[in-house]
Every structure is written in structure tokens, then in C-alpha cells.
Amino acid sequence: MTAVRRRNPVSDCPLTAALAAVGGKWKMIIIYWLAEEPRHFAGLRQVMPSITQKVLTEQLRELEADDIVRREPTGPAPAPVIYSLTDYGRALMPMIETVRAFGRGHIERFGG
Fold it and tell me: Are residues 31 and 22 in contact, defined by beta-carbon separation less than 8 angstroms?
């Protein structure tokens, strides 16, 4: 099943385009973990135990459709699939680190 790119809800707005690509509860976390190393689906579930299989599948498909994540089957189904960041996805790392630093400061300032 091929994922369909999500449309930018506000035409020509770079902020909504960015949020459509990486916004939400899980996408930046997925990108963060894949920046460390390519991972199998189960490996992502292991480092993200709160995400459901269904949601992880959906998020990976959307990230793949936006050319942020690469999906590499290791053989014919049901062989494991390895997920990794594309070069385009790696370009997000400075932003991810900035958001992460802001989040750390926000936790320190206001708690949890």
C-alpha cells in the first residue's frame, strides 16, 4: 500500500506545510530515533512503547510519502522491513534538535 502525501491545508504557507509533514505527537520522535540508526518496525516499537502498531504504521507511511523515511524490505513478505531517514529527512535534524532543546527547557521551567 502506497501512502498518499498529505496536502498542505493552507495553500503556500510554509509553516502549515512543515506541520503537515512532521507535526503531531509521533513524527518528530520517529525521526529522532531513526537518526540514531536504521531500525526494524519492532525496533521502533521497542524505543516507543506507547505508540500502537496501527499509529506507527500510519505515521511511517506518511513520512515515507513525504520522502522523509525510506522503507527497505529485507526480502519477500513477511520479511522484516528496515526504516531509515532519507537525505531529505536528515535535513530535519537541526530543527528536531532545536525543538528537543526547547522542550527540555520548557520542562525545566514548567515541569512535566
Answer: yes
The per-residue pLDDT for range 29-58, each reduced to its tens digit, is 999 999 999 999 999 999 999 999 999 999
Per-residue pLDDT band for 111 (boundaries 50, 70, 90) equals: confident
* Cβ-based burial of 35 (10 A; exposed 0-12, middle 13-18, buried ≥19): middle
Sheet with 81-85, strands from edge to edge, namely 39-40, 81-85, 69-73
Q: What is the DSSP string of 49-95?
A: TTS-HHHHHHHHHHHHHTTSEEEEESSSTTS-EEEEE-HHHHTTHHH
Q: Tell me: the pLDDT tens digits for 1-22?
A: 556 666 666 778 898 889 989 9
First to last CA, the chain: 38
Closest CA to 83 of 98, 62, 69, 101: 69
- The answer to whether the beta carbons of residues 39 and 63 sit under 8 Å apart is no
Nearest to 32 by CA among 65, 59, 13, 3: 59
